[in-house]
Amino acid sequence: MSTFDESTIQTSYEYIASRLPDEFKTVKLGIICGTGLGTLVETIDPATKLELHYADIPGFATSKVVGHASKLVFGHLGDERTPTVFMVGRFHFYEGHTMQQCTLPVRVMKLLGVETLIVTNAAGSLNVKQKVGDLMVLQDHLFLPGLVGSHPLIGHNLESFGPRFPAMSDAYNFRLRQLAFKAGHQVGISLNDMHEGVYCMVSGPSFETSAESRLLQQNSADAVGMSTVPEVVVARHCGIKVLGISLMTNAVVISRGRNAKMQVMIDAGLPCDDLIHEDIDRDALVANHEEVLETGAARALDMQRLVKKIADLLVLDGQK
């Protein structure tokens, strides 16, 4: 789909809406589960859980990535029993989908009544203060594919959803960020293990080289991943408030590593003071998808408790 067809959104919405019981005809909270974080759906009340597989929904794609179950799940979340729609798995640009295809579910969520969207992802840490297993609340983002023309809002603007030139300086709602840290504290997650920072989206699917990682780090990025930002952009275009949470699943390799020429000169006893050399075996530090999944599984219960508490705080905050 090179340009976006508004009728596709409506068809997807009508299919979903026709299968929803009255209690889910209007759903104010949407959650997108990132790689390895699909267990977030286990926080909902199983008695009212409703699942729709992406393959059955017109216009939806199915993710082929391990850790993405490809289903839309409705249920009541938290003690306040908030009607919620979960995307258990997302579509990725690197799978060959267009940016418009990747963000179609967010448009559908808008038609379903979603007012707040929580987007989660697995990310690589570029900030030495963020350990593997730590959480980062998104304060801002760098959208590298979008800056060079791969943007979900390219093409005819959908005026019924939002303006031609939406602002992104307020992409991540300040009040929602406050509630995320408050929720973390209340469920026993150390605030030393929760951070606030800038997420950078790259297209993938290859992990970054160390030179690319240093470039991102030097340009204010605290974490890097291959998703999330297109969904955030479209959500803000629709007027949906956004909270983003990254789970640090690996430490990005930033070191230059050993210099082959220098090593030969050292071995030969030749002077080599002008060469950069770090005695680090980068081959032992390479990122891999298995590590991402393992960290997601290890942190699953904390993420469940956090998101569940955020949903409850949203309700209580709206009652003030």
UniProtKB/TrEMBL annotation:
Coiled coil: none
Enzyme Commission number(s) from the entry: 2.4.2.1
Domain Nucleoside phosphorylase: 28-254
InterPro entries in the record: Nucleoside_phosphorylase_d, Nucleoside_phosphorylase_sf, Pur_Nuc_Pase_Ino/Guo-sp, Purine_phosphorylase, Purine_phosphorylase-2_CS
CC terms in the record's Gene Ontology section: cytoplasm
GO biological process: guanosine catabolic process; inosine catabolic process; NAD+ biosynthetic process via the salvage pathway; nicotinate nucleotide salvage
Similarity comment: family membership: Belongs to the PNP/MTAP phosphorylase family.
Protein name from the UniProt record: Purine nucleoside phosphorylase
Species this chain originates from: Absidia repens
Native organism taxonomy: Eukaryota, Fungi, Fungi incertae sedis, Mucoromycota, Mucoromycotina
